[in-house]
Amino acid sequence: MDIARSLRAEARRANERRLLVLAGDPDRTRERAAAALDAADVADTETTVVGPEPFLACEHHEQSRAEELLGRTRTAVVLDTHEELRPDAVGRTVGAVDGGGLYVLLAPPLDTWPEERDGFDASLAVPPFDVADVTGHFRRRFVETLRAHRGIAIVDADAGTVEQDGLTNPPPSRPVPSPTLPADAWFRSETYAQCLTDDQQDAVRAFESLRTTSEAVVVEADRGRGKSSAAGLAAGNLAVGGRDVLVTAPQYRSAAEVFARAGNLLEALGVDFARDRASNPQRLDVTDAGCVRYAPPDEAALLPEDPDVVIVDEAAALPVRRLEQFLEASAVAFTTTVHGYEGAGRGFSVRFRDRLAESDHAVTDVSMTTPIRYGDADPVEVWAFRALLLDARPPVDQLITDATPETVEYRRLSAADLLADEHLLREVFGLLVLAHYRTEPSDLARLLDAPNLTVRALTHEGHVVAVTLLAQEGGLSADTRATMYEGGRVRGNMLPDVLSTQLRDEAAGIPVGQRVLRIATHAAVRSRGLGSTLLSEIKAEFADHVDWLGVSYGATPDLVRFWADNGYNTVHLATSRNATSGEYSVVMLDPCSDDGAALAARHGEWFQDRIAAVLSDPLDDCDPDVVRAVLRATDGERPVSLSEWEWRLVAGVPGGASVLDTNPKPFRELTRQHLSNPADATALSPREERLLVRKVLQSHAWATVAEELEFVSERECMRTLGGIVERLTRLYGDPWVQEELDRHQ
Predict the structure, then answer these.
(1) SS3 of residue 237 by DSSP
(2) Are 406 and 453 part of one and the same domain?
(3) Could you tell me if 604 and 667 lie in one domain?
């Protein structure tokens, strides 16, 4: 109790946070947590417990629901890790503690904690491995950071002894000078008087551009920098100026600060406004002017009532495809967390920024670095960044700019190698984070502890320039295969799972493979063949030990061509979009043994059998360039097989004697053949191949196809398709078919 009281007093004096670790028996740590918070004068209404039991009379969430704290501020958060330690829960809860507050961690005895296996460890034990194969490297490193960092008190709850008191004796916090009010601002001066830092003022100024159309603002910041408050101040001003401002976020609680600041500003401005508490409590209507209203992402993406401005708060937590829909708004702003791995990860910065740059919006970028919730020397933030590698970065460009396939070294990196070299670990994980849209703190634990994962890298003069994370899959027992085939949940083994459950191949779990889970090349040395070099080294290492190498990813034309160029062939294209990337995922295999070749051959054949049918139904909106690339990446020759009547039907189209709609099947078969295994790859232009995909395979209306592919008329589009059919008929038809074709010319 004395420690908690002293920690809280020091935290309040310095406007920083402190971390209190209570280690020992679960019941005893919970009892001491209750006493500590009472001694520290933290009210239940200002406390949240995250863990298995609601042992305090306060807000409670399971670790799996830790995202409930995103965008919120609490005086104390208690993370109970006795049943499991989820790294993502740490990342999502630590940022919710306000300056002057306490982050309380309940844990087993620290000396033995790394050797124990908990619920999260069980999730890493994917078949054929079990929980005994999971290591404790992540927790060992986690405990080391707790003992090494300032501002962290550690108490043995069983013995009642203090290992370290966590007191840093900092100087009292100094008031932050108020920013100088801008002289030429459009927003009311009272707005800028409420800004607490220059960063926040700059962000609010950027929002002024949203008064005009075709503008976009991106505000990036770590948690606690006041980005949501800046959005709220801007929303209030825009509403006073007559704008209809639509706000969205993963859930309303995440956007609550936007509405709180907008409402406070409207009161400070003395304008008349109403809160619609009866039917929609998330709405502010300014009399004779505009409004600020909330809608959940799926509704907001439809731009209901045609808003003037859309503000997307915590954008990184939304799928890329959903974010793309907001680019249809006249003016739009995105606020996003840089290092917090909010929601699904870094889809915003990795995938969406390219889409935003290609849009018709002029983009204004703002970066906020000065903390508002707590002091800029806050030791808990320093600890969290190191413990979860939230600020991990690949090497700076200058260190690796001369890297080529001839200068790099292929390295097999074990968890022991990474733990022994913190710099190497940060480069590896930093490159994975920046190059992939879905890397979270839990991925650090998987990297260090999961028995099915291995890391391979290319280094240049000791620095990482390319890295891949491989997952062993397959080699499953008959019982496990049966469970998977019958729809039971089997952790990991993503490729065997897809091939077994969706494609009904129970034997797909027998061959053993290595799936490329992640692959990344440093941005400064891309397009030099380093990714292909890494894949070549991987095949050389594993070819004699596995049946296949595989990969699954959100398909884009460039990515599909990259994998095809490296020997991987299409066996499946998902019929629903990836929830994070918004893209259709493709599965590709590179066989290494006879068993692997048999697996790839039968699934490649089945893919050819079904692709025309799914493209005209669930995949009718798939990008035609993705379809072209996926089909071109199929393996094996499969000649066109049409009946005499079907050939006569096809041969009659160019001359107008027959029409495609009479029976699309032979035209789809001809298209599939040419796109997957062309007799002459130069016979058709890319635009003509897109026409085949959109009209023949996906069955889009003539008007839609003509507009998308920029034909001057539907008639021209039809004539072009007739010419394409003629060329394909001459390429693949027997002599008598060509005579039939000539008969109608």
Answers:
(1) helix
(2) yes
(3) no
- Please indicate, yes or no, whether residues 361 and 300 belong to a single structural domain of this protein: yes
Query: Is 520 a known ligand-binding residue?
Result: yes
Give CA–CA dist 311/515, Å, rounded.
39
Check: CB of residue 291 under 8 Å from CB of residue 276: no
SS3 11: helix
Q: What pLDDT, on the 0 to 100 scale, is given for residue 391?
A: 83
* pLDDT attached to residue 344: 33
Question: CA-to-CA distance for 85 and 94, rounded, in angstroms?
Answer: 13
C-alpha span between 220 and 231 (Å, rounded)? 12
Ranges under pLDDT 70 in the chain: 71, 176-177, 277-281, 338-351, 436-438, 579-581, 636
Residue after which a domain boundary falls, among 320, 353, 368:
368
Q: Find, among 662, 666, 644, the residue nearest to 728 by Cα.
A: 666
414 and 358 housed in the same domain: no
User: Hey, what are 182's tokens?
Assistant: 């801008």
CATH code of the domain containing 50 = 3.40.50.11040
Q: Is 47 marked as binding a ligand? A: no
Share of the chain above pLDDT 90, in %: 78
**Which residue matches tokens 């590896």?**
428
Phi, psi (degrees; rounded to nearest 5) at 681: -65, -15
Contacts of 371 (CB under 8 A, 6+ apart): 99, 222, 224, 225, 378, 381
- Give the model confidence (pLDDT) of 321-364 as tens digits: 888 999 999 999 999 876 544 333 444 666 688 889 889 999 99
Query: Rounded to an integer, what distance in angstroms lies between the CA atom of residue 676 and that of residue 639?
Result: 10
Q: Is 100 domain-assigned?
A: yes
Unique residue bearing structure tokens 């707005």: 191
Terminal CA-CA length for the chain? 95
Total domains in the fold of the chain? 4
* H/E element, 589: strand 584-591
Q: 3 labelled as ligand-binding?
A: no
Are residues 550 and 495 in contact, defined by beta-carbon separation less than 8 angstroms? yes
Who's near 540: CB < 8 A, 6+ residues apart? none
Is-contact 48 60, C-beta < 8 A? yes
DSSP H helical segments within 40-166, as ranges? 87-94, 119-124, 137-148
Residue 50: the pLDDT is 98
Same domain, 359 and 414: no
200 is in an annotated binding site: yes
Return the exposure string of 139-162: e unless at least 16 CB atoms fall within 10 Å of the residue's CB, then b: bbbbbebbeebbbbbbbbbeeeee
| DSSP category for residue 281 | S
Per-residue confidence (pLDDT) for residue 321, from 0 to 100: 81
Among 501, 506, 498, CA closest to 550: 498
Same-domain check for residues 273 and 323: yes
Q: Is the dihedral of CA 336, 337, 341, 342 positive or negative?
A: negative
Identify whether residues 340 and 243 lie together within a single domain.
yes
DSSP symbol at 693: I
Closest CA to 307 of 294, 318, 320, 298: 294
Structure confidence by residue, pLDDT tens digits, 14-25: 999 999 999 999
Residue 351's pLDDT is: 67
Domain that holds residue 32: 2-164
Q: Is 538 annotated as a binding residue?
A: no
Q: Where does 270-396 have alpha helices with state H?
A: 297-300, 320-325, 347, 353-358, 379-387
- Decide if 384 is inside a domain: no
Last residue of a domain, one of 148, 164, 180: 164
At residue 336, the 3 state secondary structure works out as strand
How far is 532 from 566, CA to CA, in rounded Å? 6
For every residue of 74-129, DSSP letters joined together read EEEEEEE-SS---HHHHHHHHTTEEEEEEEEEEES-TTTGGGS--HHHHHH--TT-
Contact 145, 110 (CB under 8 A): no
Q: What angle, rounded to 10 degrees, do the helices at 379-387 and 137-148 form?
A: 160
Residue 471 included in any domain: yes
H helix intervals, 241-314: 252-269, 297-300
Element (H, E) at 367: strand 362-368
CA 705, CA 629: separation in Å to the nearest integer? 19
CATH of the domain at 240: 3.40.50.300
Residue 357 shares a structural domain with residue 491? no
